[in-house]
Amino acid sequence: MPTANTIRDVNIVGVEANASQQIVRKWMVHLLDASFGSGTPAWYRFGRDLQEYNVELNPDTENRKNILGNTSFIHNGYEPSGENDTFYAHKGDPLFEALQDIVDGLKTGDACKTSAVEVHTWEESGANTNIFAATKQDCYVVPTSYGGGTDGYQIPFQVNYVGDKVKGTYNALTKTFTPTSETASAKLSALTIGSLTLSPTFSADTTSYTATTTNATDTVTATVADNSATVAITNGSSSVTNGSAATWTSGSNTLTIVVTNGSATKTYTVTVTKS
Asked: Sign of dihedral through CA atoms 122, 124, 128, 130?
């Protein structure tokens, strides 16, 4: 028998495995983090006003023919996006309030960045009927207009998905996403130490760097690739708050940045030499 669960105020249903059963559209659940990275994720199920929502994958592909007449197929990836072309505003609705804030400030860039989770409610996790297979991905939520007619005030928006999808599970009772240890991203997407030049140039998969400085202090900013991850920074034995200054002593200083996401961890080190 199906089992009823709740994400926000909308019931979702997990179904027993049945190879011949057609998947009902509402069983594919789309969530946005209405906190926009400002605190604990506030997962909001959107689609209340939609009759249809599609994630367009927009594949980047091409066929190339060489001088020998041979044709090769090139697939450079995807640029997925979705159009929420009807979104009626409701007072106190957290997603509406976030969208209105973007509109009022004509905000751009990372001010529009949040995360999206897609929940496969036909795939229950083992015997637990409240936990489902899910994926999480960063995205930019961009209002496309605001206003509307006599039927109500609207702020339709576009969702532009970026980065890798992280596999995991979604708990419908606690409203939390948990990445699997195999896919959890414990990487940085950027690392800056004031205006210092890192050697080699920063790459998420490169964990050891050097830099030189004549400054007494430099601001250390570590940006995680996955908003679920946390960062701990130390300069030698001294803790450094992300986005604040590290103080150097003459000679060699070892800056350590540990990224943690669930059970996944990654450690970056930068040897900063002060002359």
From this structure: negative
Backbone φ and ψ for 197, nearest 5 degrees, come out as -95, 120
Report, at the CATH architecture level, how domain 188-274 is classified: Sandwich (2.60)
- Where are the chain's structural domains? 3-179, 188-274
What six digits make up the tokens of 182?
């195999």
Q: Mind listing the pLDDT tens digit for each residue in 189-246?
A: 999 999 999 999 998 888 999 999 999 999 999 999 887 789 999 999 999 999 999 9
d(CA 55, CA 34) in angstroms, rounded, equals 19
